[in-house]
Amino acid sequence: MGNNNLGIKKVDLNKVPFKVRVRPYLIVAPSLIITIGIMVPFVMAIWFSFTNYSFQFPTHRFVGLDNWVNMLTSREFWNALKISLLYGLFSTAIEILLGLGIALLLNSLNNWLSKVLRVLLVFPLMVAPVTATIVWQLMLNSSVGIVEKLFNLFGLYNFPWAASPDTALMTVIMIDVWINTSFVILLVLAGLQSLPKSPFESAKIDGGSAWFNFKNLTLPMLKPSLYIALLFRLMAALQEYAVIFALTKGGPGDTLMSLSLTSYQKGFTFQKFGSAIPYILVLWLIINVLAKWIVKRQRIAQKQASGLEG
Amino acid sequence: MMNTSKQRVLTALMNILLLIYAVFALFPLLWMVMISFKADTEVFTTTFIFNPTLANYKEVLFRSNYARYIIDSLIVSGGAVLVSVVVGVPAAYALARYNFPRKEELAFQILSFKFAPEILVVLPLFMLYQKMGLYDSYIGLIWVYQLISLPLLIWVVRGYFEDISVEIEYAAQVDGYPWYQIFFKMLIPLIKPGLVSSALLAFIFAWNSFTFPLILASSKVYPVTVAITKYLGTDTARYGNLAVAATVSALPAIIFALFIQKHLVRGLSFGAVKG
Amino acid sequence: MKKILVVLMILVVLMTGVFAQGSKEAASEKFDPSAVKGNFDWKMYDGSEITVLFSDHTYASAVEAKLKDFTDKTGIKVNYSSMPEGNYFEKLNVELASRSGSIDVFMTGAYQSWGYATAGNVEPLENYINNASLTDKSWNYSDFIPGVIDALKWDLKPGHPVGKGSQWALPMGWEVNILTYNKKVLADKGLNPPKTAEELLSVAKALKEFGGSGTYGLAVRGLPDWGTIHPAYMSLYSTWGAKDFEVVNGKLVSRVNSPEAVAMTEYWVDLVKNGGAPQWASYGWELCGADLGAGKAAMMWDADRGGYTQNVKGASAQAGNLAFGMVPYPVSAGKTEADMKSNLWVWSMAMNSASNKKGPAWQFMQYFTSPEFMLWSGTEGSCTDTPRTSVLTSQAYRNSVADAEGYYEAFSKVSKDASIFFTAQPYFVETTTEWAKVLQELVTTNKYPSVQVAMDRLKKTMDNIVADLKVE
Predict the structure, then answer these.
(1) What's the structural domain count of chain B?
(2) Strand partners, C322
(3) Which of A26, B206, C297, C405 is least buried, going by the fewest C-beta atoms within 10 A?
């Protein structure tokens, strides 16, 4: 049995009988089977992208790369790409930093405030995104909104929020941050709560500063959780369309027409399903590439963190 | 050694920062609950001082199909999380402990199912489900929800398994404990924070899912998230009713969250097993 | 592992190719309505079951309330479900596209039916209406208000107006788009209710911030979708004498850059910028109605139902203070009251052409558009926009709307010339969405040096969208 001092978990497979060797595959198999079904609709969708499939007409025919070429040469595609990336990257970055900070605060303080907030601060996530957007829209409304009334106290009137091209993206990112920071807080908090005590005890004896402890002990051990949070948030933020749709349906003009919203509009509203798919496939490709990169770093961070604890 | 007054200032600062964020995060929720108690004539004309009324609650909870929507959501979301836990925790363990060929590819493959954007697959899925008889069924939705809950659960829990030093398991094996006792009595408690937090998140995401239930279900299965916008009304916007529907809809997740609170903090006695 | 996946994928693509074709063959057995003979009997289809998908609406709730009565009378069981309005059409599009006959009857608007009928998803109804074996004698087709029932007839030729061709749907309720205003606010400021477009502009501007910051003169929709163009904007556009499309040499040509269209749009942009809501671009009908009801908007130009329901006692803070005007007409363009045109919206129900239960479906449709049902729904069911003349002229109906000042007069007068002023074509949703986006850009940005330039560009976009339509 491979078991060396570094605590690497390894089973020497050459000496192990088939029955045992196949065990991990068997254990993982149900998860795989359940989720592999999605490949069928996925491939169907790819097929549709090469046709002029539209709900308008009773039949559809193969049109080759027409849909793809039309998309790549359209201004709306590049606009959509830009918006998806801005929205995805900015909201994720803010959520990670803010979530990390708040989780650290919650963990360090041990008063009744932090104990109560540990539970309460997950609540924003429990309101469905569409509902949260409707509530925020009401609050930001310049006629009846409470945020507007607050701003009035400071002499600021009629802040446009989602109704102006200059502030729409910022508004929608703010709502996204409001909803999803809780996700990061929960994951990081769980991670902080399960950090082992001994490295910190040793460090205390060695006498290092709090910042030093954070940088060299806490952060590396938290990195795996942070990468997971980053991964899931980025994937979701890039695909997000429900919040934008509920807030402005993509307006004003084309300001908030991300790739997913453009695809949704083309496919479900205009019923030109064949030409809608390339947009969302490009999004899928981007997510795939980004995810591979993040996962690689997560695996490295995980190994380092486990080493620190072993 | 820190100066105590410096420490006090720092603590005060930390509390203030936390409070600022708490106001930002919680005020909209408070406001939403307040609206649920406001009559239609007062929703826009009052802020904190108003005449509370239970009329909205009566209308939503007793004179509509709300209870049925909540039950459908409970069945579908709860069922989805249950399946994910039963199937996913062993898978996470296998991916953490065993070192078999293509392990990372397999893990990534499972993760990649979450990349499939909902709008991409929902139309073909609709056609397939109709042919397979899974349209508008609990099983159909529970299956589709696995896309949302399973990858998250597996990846978070896998990390927690990896954190546990393998020596403990070997020690227990040497002591003669059977594998299921090691698994359930020793390992599960160690991964509790990761398990309950990802289960809660999976439940929330499944509950809030909108596109899948909208397209893949209609009359027999009607999760509450699709129904909430019904309460906004059709001739006049009934924000009070909407607020009631949204507030009550968040309750199951809140109860779940309160319930897992104590599991989020691992017991001190287990501190010894790491390192 | 990868190789196996690739092989699987190829197999799957082949399979789905079969699937996609197969779903068309699985269409309904041909039901020929004109072949049905014998006496009409409500229990003709006793024991069958149909599926109905409606959009959440007062008209749908009225139907839902009487489902049991329907089943008792006919023995037909109904699987009823309704979706929130905001997502209804997306859901319906998916159901119809699959051509699986999973729905038998659905709710639609006139504009949407152009697309669905062109796609072959809608069953034409004339052979049902005209067959005495299928339709009860007392159902009385000629009782429907002509403008309303004609709006649902089209011959499927792009560019041809509605009113001729197959009957694609039956009306459940309809809306004209008139001005609703707050009597009290106008009186307080010493202003008369505007009758012309010029008056509307000056009154709206004068009412800016009438009650402090956040209050304004006129609430109109501003979201980037068809809902922004069809109520107030299109009514004024048509009153101004402009057309959206014209047929030239067998092709549909957009006319949004004609002098009248540009003049009207310049007026509209001015109206919104200086008399409209500060956050107009994110306003749908909900926020417009909410602002009117809360006393933040002094006037609203939208569906008559929107104003009417805000005025019902207990519905809003301003209930009881609201009164109804008509369509402001532009005197500067030489128009008079006789030129008032209101665009029409008709919520209606249609039959899925892929349905396997067309007989029972027709029974459902005629029951819920019958004179008896509509008298009930028009008076007690809150469906105040009744499509039947007999109900409209009945005393019971008049009594039920008596509380709304000016409502009955405005509604009756404007309905005479109300019609659908859009050119019928299947790409309606796309062309009007692009139109709304340009409006938004005109109001919120300086992207275009002038309205003319913006409309010239919009014309090109619209021409492109309809380019593949053959017009005769």
Answers:
(1) 2
(2) C182
(3) A26
B124 interaction partners in chain C (CB closer than 8 Å)? 16
Q: Which residues contact C328 (CB under 8 A, 6 or more apart)?
A: C179, C194, C195, C196, C197, C199, C200, C236
How high is the pLDDT of residue A59? 67
- Locate the domains of chain A by residue range: 10-48, 66-305
Which domains does chain C show, CATH number per domain? Answer: 41-175+345-416 (3.40.190.10), 177-343+420-465 (3.40.190.10)
pLDDT score, position B233? 74
B41 and B119 housed in the same domain: no
CATH of A66-305, one of 1.10.3720.10, 1.10.600.10, 3.80.10.10, 1.20.120.1780: 1.10.3720.10
The pLDDT averaged over each successive group of 10 residues in chain A (310 residues) is 43 59 79 79 84 68 83 92 96 96 89 88 91 92 88 88 92 96 91 78 73 78 90 93 91 91 91 88 92 91 73
Number of CB atoms found within 10 A of residue B214's CB: 21
**CA angle, B111 then B188 then B179, to 5°:** 100
Note the helical H segments in C318-387: 358-367, 371-379
Put simply, whether B215 touches C (Cβ < 8 Å) is: yes
pLDDT at B188 over 90: no
What tens digit of pLDDT does each residue of B96-115 get? 888 887 888 888 888 888 88
Question: Does B268 score more than 50 pLDDT?
Answer: no
Give the chain B residue nearest C21 (alpha carbons): B127
ipTM above 0.90, yes or no: no
Q: Are residues B17 and B75 in the same domain?
A: no
- Considering only residues B251 and A209, tell me which one the structure prediction assigns the higher pLDDT: B251
The DSSP H or E segment spanning A139 is: helix A129-140
Token readout for C405 is 């000042």
- Of B130, B214, B227, nearest to C100 by CB-CB distance is B130
- Of the listed ranges B55-59, B129-133, C442-446, C458-462, the least confidently predicted one is B129-133
C429-440 b/e with 16+ CB inside 10 Å = b? bbbbbbbbbbbb
Q: Out of C1, C85, C290, whose CB is closest to B234?
A: C85
Q: Tell me the residue range of the domain where B32 lies.
A: 5-55
Rounded mean pLDDT of chain B? 86
Output the domain CATH number for residue B237.
Answer: 1.10.3720.10
Would you report the helix, strand and coil content of chain A in percent, each value rounded to 5?
75, 0, 25
- Taking one residue from A and the other from C, the number of pairs with CB-CB distance under 8 angstroms is 139
Asked if residue B273 belongs to a domain, the reply is: no
Q: Is the pLDDT of residue B30 over 70?
A: yes
- Residue B41 is predicted with a pLDDT of 82
Predicted confidence band of residue C4 (pLDDT cuts 50, 70, 90): low
Q: Which residues of A touch B105 (CB under 8 A)?
A: none
Pair (B32, B69) in one structural domain = no
Q: Which of A70, A143, A146, A148 to mutate to test the interface with C (most CBs of C within 10 A)?
A: A143
Report the residue of B234, B238, B241 to disrupt the C interface, i.e. the one with the largest count of C CBs within 10 Å: B234
If you average pLDDT over every residue of chain C, what do you get?
Answer: 89
Percent of chain C with pLDDT over 70: 94
Structure tokens at C335: 């128009």
Q: Give, to the nearest 10 degrees, the angle between helix C197-206 and helix C259-275.
A: 20
Question: Is B128 a domain residue?
Answer: yes
pLDDT band of B272, cuts 50, 70, 90? very low
| R_g of chain C computed on alpha carbons | 24
Long-range pairs, B231-234, Cβ under 8 A, ≥24:
B231/B60, B231/B64, B232/A134, B232/C84, B232/C86, B232/C286, B233/C286, B234/C56, B234/C57, B234/C58, B234/C85
